[in-house]
Design brief:
Bound molecules: nicotinamide-adenine-dinucleotide
Number of domains: 2
Shape: globular
CATH superfamily of the largest domain: Isopropylmalate Dehydrogenase
Helix content: 40-55%
Order of helices and strands: EHEHHEHEHEEEHEHEHEHEEHHEEH
Structural class: alpha/beta
Strand order of the largest sheet: 2-1-3-12-11-4-5-10-8-9
CATH class of the largest domain: Alpha Beta
């Protein structure tokens, strides 16, 4: 049995706890069958934490997250808390964790599994086999740059201000994550900017190029303007393997890429911090979907994105590639066998709820590991 791996599990609100229950079964399965043990702690975040602790993410939760090897996050928010002032919103729970843990690199895969190719809005021949990864810088850029705000001028008219700013160090550290990823995949990286019209974009392009030349000469780097990338994603997405973008462009392009797959309930994500001297890094894994209040409590949510987030956790935080692949294969096999939750239903498939989907994945895991 390998040493304990410490996980902090934060199910959050809405469907978060429902889909996390299925992940806990996968974690238990791993402990039983794969000679690895996890020490799992659970905590509150988002609306659940607001109700119980008066804050969307308590100091204690932040400390526990820092002490953990990895954080598995559900989703936060819902109509119950919609009327609260901005500084008490459940969504601040995830923002605080990202800031406190220094999670600057958001990894969002957009994958089209063969059984779900018809869920895409694009033609099957354009999207079949799509497997791309977007690396989005997530703690800098225009969402955080100063000055920002709304001010009223002497003429009584208001002005809204946001500032896009990137330092060299911020670009270097996220570029390294993207280059490393590309090196482990097809060796191709596309870096996105608007160097034609933005000074921060000029710096972005220059610094990414320097990192590539100095540290990753084996990776083929190309640069693309963000507007062109949006067009290319919508028309010929398979030309990409790893895409690197700043916060704003990464936000838009990763949503577009996710929409191409047509399956919000299927997509995981990871957000990583910088490695320390021992190579240990803070990391948080979560599905890209929200708390889906419209279906919460009905037992029909798709648990796959949350389960695949756990697979990403195994790969990125523990280097457990084989186990991560096992989970991904189990999910794919269940879908190929024709079981579907409501969000990914197609003609000729059988509709199942959250826990039956979870059980089916466990059964496939049993078969694959036999
Ligand atoms: P959402 O992702 O929660 O839901 C969008 C649609 O997709 C809904 O119809 C929902 O039923 C469906 N859906 C989402 N996940 C699904 C799943 N696993 N299985 C089946 N169907 C699924 O987005 P929204 O409705 O815009 O937001 C709802 C709440 O979630 C809001 O309070 C929002 O702020 C919050 N939110 C949180 C996060 C996060 O926690 N990181 C991310 C996005 C939205």
């Amino acid at each position: 049995m390998t040493a304990n791996k410490k996980l902090l599990v934060l199910p959050g609100d809405g469907i978060g706890p429902e889909v996390m229950r299925e992940v806990r079964r996968v974690v238990d399965w791993m402990s039983r069958r794969r000679s690895v043990s996890f020490q799992v702690e659970e905590g509150l975040v988002g609306g659940a934490a607001l109700d119980a602790e008066g804050t969307p993410c308590s100091d204690e939760t932040v400390e526990r997250a820092k002490a953990a090897d990895a954080v598995l996050f559900g989703s936060v928010g819902g109509p119950k808390w919609d009327g609260l002032p901005f500084d008490r919103r459940p969504e601040l729970g995830i923002l605080r964790l990202r800031q406190e843990l220094g999670l600057f690199a958001n990894l969002r895969p957009a994958t089209v599994l063969d059984p779900l190719v018809s869920a895409s809005s694009l033609k099957p021949e354009v999207v079949r086999g799509l497997d791309l990864m977007i690396v989005r810088e997530s703690t800098g850029g225009i969402y955080f740059g100063e000055p920002r705000g709304i001010e009223t001028g002497a003429d009584g008219k208001r002005r809204g201000i946001d500032t896009e700013v990137y330092t060299e160090d911020e670009i270097v550290r996220v570029a390294r994550v993207a280059f490393e990823l590309a090196r482990g995949r097809s060796g191709k990286l596309t870096s996105i900017d608007k160097a034609n019209v933005m000074q921060s974009g000029r710096l972005w392009r220059a610094v990414v190029g320097e990192v590539g030349k100095a540290e990753f000469p084996d990776v083929q780097l190309s640069n693309m303007y963000a507007d062109n990338c949006a067009m290319q994603l919508a028309s010929n997405p398979r030309q990409f393997d790893v895409i690197l973008a700043g916060n704003l462009f990464g936000d838009l392009l990763s949503d577009l890429a996710a929409a191409l797959t047509g399956s919000l309930g299927m997509l995981p994500s990871a957000t990583l911090g910088a490695p320390d001297a021992a190579g240990r890094r803070h990391a948080l894994y979560e599905p890209i979907h929200g708390s889906a209040p419209d279906i919460a409590g009905k037992g029909i949510a798709n648990p796959c994105a949350q389960i695949l987030s756990f697979a990403m956790l195994l790969r990125w935080s523990f280097g457990m590639e084989e186990d991560a692949r096992l989970i991904e294969q189990a999910v794919e096999k269940v879908l190929a066998g024709g079981l579907r939750t409501a969000d990914i239903m197609a003609a000729g498939t059988a509709r199942v709820g959250t826990s039956v989907m979870g059980e089916a994945i466990l059964r496939e895991l049993d078969k694959l590991a036999a």
